[in-house]
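Researcher: Quick test of sequence recovery. Tokens follow.
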């Protein structure tokens, strides 16, 4: 059976199928163009959302009608459907999430604190001397740091911050401190003018360690006559290295978030494929339902016209006294029934048009171009007379190979395995090895104290202190190991147990989904065969009902039948036509469902996924 509208409409649509449509602007954020020192601190430009429709829609409208083939409907949906547009953002976001994971560090949103306080170097000035001797409220008083109650909501070790960082802090202070004991300071009020500068460079390693290079410069001038160097400069350069030995050790643990983010990016293509496949199926079902509604309106209109003509003929026969008045009433009743059926069919057509318009447009009927046009489906459904043969095992194998949702489940299981490396590693005790190498220097203006001048090696300014630092005149080395173990370790044990149980649940769910594929394929094939059988029976019944109506009309004209019998045959013919239309659309829906279950609906409809992602189809 050929199912559709006039060949002229098909020809019109074909004439415009080769039109090249203008490509819409992209959605990818534009990275800043700025000097290297400024670029990392400049935001990217994110384009606004796209609410306009592609040019394809306008090009298919002729004389107030939108002529649509099935491929046109799919192309418009993939270019304009909002669900597809939303799905386009997922790969873009996952690219940024991968970049975020590659930077390392704690999860986004975890607070951190840092503090910088006025201080003097141990041994520098009166307070520094007191601090070095372990007495008094000396050099590091007033640090004022507050860590708060920050909670890291991350299971397993936190990946080191892999982006190198530079930090600089400077403090300028003027402080007056009363001296209860003036033996050392020789003054009742100690007045300090100080400048403290600290700069460090830090780099984390994916293996589970970090290195920090720190340079400190401290300047102090005070009013104490007991200072041998005043003003004085103290400098230091230190390199600190630490590394995890048990918990948090290893590239696999450190890179697990990066690997998961990379898999998620690959998974986004599969998820987009799933969204495209679902949209194609929805559009095709809506399209063929609309085509069915058109045919149903035509059928109902024909039945109405037949009933109306039958009433007109019967009225003439009643006027001539050749027909009883009761037969005229019966025919008018059939006319009213046919009119109601026509109105219902027209309503269904309007609803089908509205649904399809919302699928192929981002603004639906709010678009003035689309609001006033009617959709004319130009596609046809052809059902061959010979039954198709299906190889269930081959179809199941095809589904396993092509279904993007099944591949997504497999990747999701891999991601869970990778993430569980963190909880498994979190079972281990914490052990770290650390080492620090520090070179210090001290210099200043000499002052005689008790008739003695300071060592000439210490006399000078910042250059003298810096020369001491790089000359390693005052080196300090330290190394050590830190270990910590939780008695019972119940939290880590519970985290690991929960993750493993959830992983087992995911494995079972994935296995159930794969088992369901064979059931779905078998049911789809059975439903498709039944739909073919219903169509063949409905088509044969339609031909029979058409012959019965023609025979009954001839008998009525010869006076050998009644109006009631003719009306009954008209009703049966209308019902047979509706049954054939319904069976035809059911068969087509079965084909769409089988393509969806086997994962071939995108390829069957010649859709290039990269074009769908870009929002512009070449066809």
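Model:
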């Amino acid at each position: 059976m050929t199912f559709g509208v006039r060949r002229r409409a098909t020809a019109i649509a074909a004439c415009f199928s080769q039109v090249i449509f203008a490509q819409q602007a992209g959605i990818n954020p534009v990275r800043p163009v700025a000097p290297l020192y400024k670029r990392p601190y400049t935001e990217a430009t994110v384009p606004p959302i796209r609410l306009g429709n592609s040019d394809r829609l306008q090009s298919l409208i002729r004389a107030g009608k939108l002529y649509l083939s099935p491929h046109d409907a799919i192309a418009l949906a993939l270019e304009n459907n909002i669900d597809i547009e939303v799905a386009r953002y997922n790969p873009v976001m996952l690219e940024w999430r991968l970049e975020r994971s590659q930077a390392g560090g704690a999860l986004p949103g975890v607070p951190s604190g840092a503090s910088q306080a006025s201080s003097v170097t141990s041994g520098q000035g009166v307070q520094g001397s007191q601090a070095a001797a372990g007495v008094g409220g000396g050099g590091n008083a007033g640090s004022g740091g507050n860590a708060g109650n920050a909670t890291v909501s991350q299971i397993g070790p936190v990946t080191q911050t892999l982006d190198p960082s530079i930090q600089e802090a400077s403090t300028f202070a003027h402080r007056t401190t009363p001296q209860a004991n003036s033996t050392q300071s020789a003054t009742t009020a100690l007045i300090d003018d100080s400048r403290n500068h600290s700069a460090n460079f830090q780099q984390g390693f994916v293996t589970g360690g970090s290195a920090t290079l720190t340079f400190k410069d401290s300047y102090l001038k005070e009013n104490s006559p007991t200072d041998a160097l005043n003003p004085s400069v103290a400098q230091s350069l230190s390199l600190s290295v630490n590394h995890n030995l048990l918990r948090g050790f290893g590239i696999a643990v450190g890179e697990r978030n990066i690997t998961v983010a990379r898999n998620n990016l690959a998974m986004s293509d599969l998820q987009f494929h799933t969204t495209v496949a679902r949209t194609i199926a929805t559009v095709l079902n809506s399209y063929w339902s609309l085509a069915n509604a058109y045919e149903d309106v035509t059928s109902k209109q024909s039945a109405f016209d037949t009933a109306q003509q039958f009433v007109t003929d019967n009225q003439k026969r009643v006027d001539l006294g050749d027909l009883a008045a009761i037969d005229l009433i019966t025919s008018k009743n059939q006319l009213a029934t046919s009119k109601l059926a026509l109105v219902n069919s027209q309503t269904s057509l309007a609803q089908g048009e509205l649904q399809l318009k919302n699928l192929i447009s981002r603004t639906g009927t709010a678009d003035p171009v689309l609001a006033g046009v009617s959709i004319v489906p130009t596609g046809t459904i052809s059902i061959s007379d010979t039954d198709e043969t299906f190889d269930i095992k081959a179809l199941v194998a095809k589904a396993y190979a092509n279904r993007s949702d099944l591949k997504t489940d497999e990747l999701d299981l891999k991601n869970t395995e990778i993430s569980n490396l963190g909880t498994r590693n979190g079972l281990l005790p914490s052990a770290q090895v650390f080492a620090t190498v520090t070179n210090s220097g001290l210099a200043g203006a000499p002052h005689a104290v008790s008739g003695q001048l300071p060592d000439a090696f210490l006399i000078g300014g910042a250059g003298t202190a810096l020369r001491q630092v790089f000359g390693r005149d005052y080196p300090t080395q330290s190394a050590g190991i830190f270990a910590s173990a939780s008695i019972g370790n119940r939290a880590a044990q519970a985290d690991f147990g929960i993750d493993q149980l959830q992983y087992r649940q995911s494995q079972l769910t994935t296995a159930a989904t794969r088992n369901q594929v064979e059931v779905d394929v078998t049911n789809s094939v059975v439903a498709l065969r039944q739909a073919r059988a219903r169509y063949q029976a409905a088509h044969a019944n339609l031909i029979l009902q058409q012959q019965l109506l023609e025979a009954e009309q001839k008998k009525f004209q010869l006076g050998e039948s009644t109006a009631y019998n003719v009306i009954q045959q008209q009703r049966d013919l209308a019902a047979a036509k509706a049954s054939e239309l319904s069976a035809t659309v059911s068969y087509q829906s079965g084909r769409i469902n089988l393509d969806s279950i086997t994962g071939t609906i995108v390829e069957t409809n010649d859709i290039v996924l990269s074009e769908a992602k870009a929002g512009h189809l070449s066809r």
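Strands lie at 61-62, 65-68, 165-178, 189-205, 209-222, 229-244, 374-377, 430-446, 474-484.
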